[in-house]
Amino acid sequence: MNPDREPSRLPLRAGAMLLLAIAIVFVGLGWHSAATSGDDPEKDLEAAQTQVTTTAAAPSSATSSSVAASADTPELCVFNAGSVSGLAGEVTDSLKAKGFQTAEPSNLTTSSVTENTVFYDEGQKSAADQVASALGDASVDPRPSSFTQCSDGIPVIVVTR
Fold it and tell me: Which end of the chain is more exposed for a tag (fewer CB within 10 A), N or C?
């Protein structure tokens, strides 16, 4: 090695800066994930306990709800458009327990639906109102022409519990 020439430390510095930048990105992603996480295990536990208590305390109300779902109500297609995993399955099970006919639950990727919504076609308004009443917190809107899924039934889009 030539004593007059100082070895270049640029590759070492560049590598260190790259590692620092990657660390900052991962710290930022972790912070963002923690800050935007809506999962609250205590809230989920309370909701489950309330559901069990309500079901055990009022079995007659479940029977009257299933009577409210008439046989002429079209099949319901439940779509999960929110970030809660398994929500469409939970809502489908709940609607089945209340006497509604349901198709297999599925997911829907859209940003245009921001609240629980029941879409209806002409002549299905009263059935859609029954479904919204069974859900408890859902708006009832005419089906947009661009929404072609579940053409023979009533689409139920769920975003939150």
Answer: N
Condensed to tens digits (0 to 9), the pLDDT of residues 98-156 reads: 888 888 888 888 777 888 889 988 888 888 888 888 888 888 989 888 888 888 888 98
Q: Which long-range contacts (CB under 8 A, 24 or more apart) does 69-74 make?
A: 69/95, 69/98, 69/99, 69/100, 69/130, 69/134, 70/127, 70/130, 72/127, 73/100, 73/101, 73/127, 73/130, 73/131, 73/154, 74/101, 74/124, 74/127, 74/152, 74/153, 74/154
Please write the tens of the pLDDT for every residue from 46-80. 766 676 665 555 444 444 444 445 556 788 899 98
The DSSP bridge pattern shows strands 76-80 and 154-158 to be parallel
Instruction: Name the β-bridge partners of 79.
Output: 106, 157
* Terminal alpha carbon distance of the chain: 71
Rounded to two decimals, what is the model's pTM?
0.54
Burial letters 106-121, b for 16+ CB under 10 A, else e: eebeeeebeebbbbbb
